[in-house]
Specification:
Elements lengths: L2 E4 L5 H26 L6 E3 L5 E3 H13 L9 E3 L12 E9 L1 H5 L6 E8 L2 E9 L4 E6 L5 E4 L4 E5 L11 E5 L6 H10 L5 E5 L4 H7 L5 E4 L3 E2 H12 L4 E4 L14 E2 L2 E4 L2 H8 L3
Parallel strand pairs: 4-5, 11-12
Antiparallel strand pairs: 1-10, 2-3, 5-6, 6-7, 7-8, 8-9, 9-10, 13-17, 14-16, 15-17
Helix pairs in contact: 1-2, 5-6
Keywords: Cell inner membrane, Cell membrane, Hydrolase, Magnesium, Membrane, Metal-binding
Protein name: 3'(2'),5'-bisphosphate nucleotidase CysQ
Membrane topology: Peripheral membrane protein
Length: 281
Amino acid sequence: MMFKQCIAPKDTLFNEIIVLLDKANQILREQYQQYLLHSDTFNIQQKEDQSAVTQADFSVHSYFSTALQNLTQKYPVLSEEGKHNERHAWDTFWLLDPLDGTKEFLAKRPEFTINLSLVQHGKTELGIISVPQENCLYIGYAGKKPFKYQFSDHTWWVYEKSDICLADQVLRIGMSHQSDSKQMQYFLQQLEKISPLQIIHAGSAYKFCLMLEGLIDIYPRFHPTCEWDTSAGQCLLESIGGGLWSHTQTPFMYNQRKTLLNGNFIAFTHMQYAKYAFQCL
């Protein structure tokens, strides 16, 4: 177990976020149940990039657009489902994916999340990933141990890294359910020369949660994501001694470019895993 139970952190923003995410989780769970029961009438659209967006995405986005402005600290919101034309004027802002894992949602796999992060001057200062179907969230500031909060019994848990022998361990690789590109196959073949592998398929940012729980070591990504997909997860991984790097071995920065699309990346929970992974590209 990577988290041990602890007393509630004395942090006003954490307390406000818990209330906000509790309601957002409820909205998304209700939308998911509606989709499971009435998928034929559930509103699903296609974006310009041909990816799906649903009424669930819009419902959670609408809630956050108002709720985030009720927090003590008020900042603009850069949401996947919002407008992006004013973002370059923002030094500090909330970065939001109201439903990360729309493909998992539509495939009726409960591996979807809500991603929320506070970005300042291109760096993520606070990362939150909430898992509605597990009724929990992961939250942490950059450079500090992250916490896990369980909504069902109102318990807090703090990250505690366990001692592991890297030399004797099977490498656990997190992959999306659709990851079968030639680039991925080559990467896995090269990595298997270093260590035995265990492949773990999971949806989108849910893989970051499994990394925090000590169930995935390396998460390679060779197809597109956007900044709201990675910001919170990167912050949380960095806070446990891991990271998320581009293929030039540099951490992602946020809201610094014309595009919000990310390039390929490697996410990892330990610097030794990063060394293994980048040998195989």
